[in-house]
Amino acid sequence: MKAFLINKYDKAVTMQLADVPEPLVNDTDILVDVHAAGLNLLDSKVKSGEFKLILPYKFPLIMGHDVAGVVTQVGKRVKKFKVGDEIYARPADGRIGTFAERIAIDENDVALKPKNISMVEAASLPLVALTAWQSLVELAHLKKGQSVFIQAGSGGVGTIAIQLAKHLGAKVATTAGVASFDALKKLGADVLIDYKTQDFETLLTNYDVVLNSQDTKTLEKSLTVVKPGGTVVSISGPPTGDLAVQKNAPWFVKIVMGLLSMGIRGKAKKRNIDYQFLFMRASGQQLTEIGKLVEAGIIKPVVDKVYPFGQANDALAYVESGRAKGKVVISLK
């Protein structure tokens, strides 16, 4: 089968389209005929080796973290799916590889595709929707009547997080370019801040939660807009030692990550703010819950561009440019 892969970590080198062996289907796996695959900044970070200490992948490595497709085979212990089911998933770390014609995924990481959206729309959701869910529901425990500041509202995570936060009953502030304001209002944003001309630090105060997706400087500024007892969840670092423990990383990686996050954790503690770093994990159960919200019209996928499979490198370059409004997807069908 055809797949896009890398043979070494290198930010500058593009993915190679190559013939690779068919996936091995374990007893609890389903084999998926890939119809569409979403792209994320995580793909670029994996390609450059940013996570090689905690995700020691072997080469050649098939790329890709988001998928929608049809089940063509099930392992002998699979109970949740059957041949012909339409599914969407974010395969677990260590088993990525959605930029391919087929992929085997553990059934626990898979959910039935929402019936009211296309394969392309479904492929845009898993990683960003799981990130939003794990940030706002699991870690921040966002509740009705609270306020949340979601950075980069027009990005892949932002567009879904805004919708989820509104569903949870929160007041939502976000940053974006003025050209995106109308679209973000329709998604549910209450307070819109032009990141080019305005400083959120001077406009926001006493927020319950911040979802940080930007650099360390922005993260530090975010602490000033959160009330004591509030929560800051960051998906862009610095990682804490908990991530190294979660990934069973070597002892020295745990120490390094602890040191990297020492400064921000100390500043958060002084302000009585809970700082959490999130490296999202696969969860078919959470995707099932998200799928219910999609089918109810509460969460709508936001797809910017769709590329044919053969143009996966162009699609990833567009994601890396930072210009995408919502998600970028490659289509195989």
From TrEMBL:
Domain Enoyl reductase (ER): 12-330
Organism: Spirosoma linguale (strain ATCC 33905 / DSM 74 / LMG 10896 / Claus 1)
Molecular function GO terms recorded: oxidoreductase activity
SMART domains found in the cross-reference section: PKS_ER
InterPro entries reported for this sequence: ADH-like_N, ER, GroES-like_sf, NAD(P)-bd_dom_sf, YIM1/Zinc_Alcohol_DH_Fams
UniProt superkingdom: Bacteria
Protein name: Alcohol dehydrogenase zinc-binding domain protein
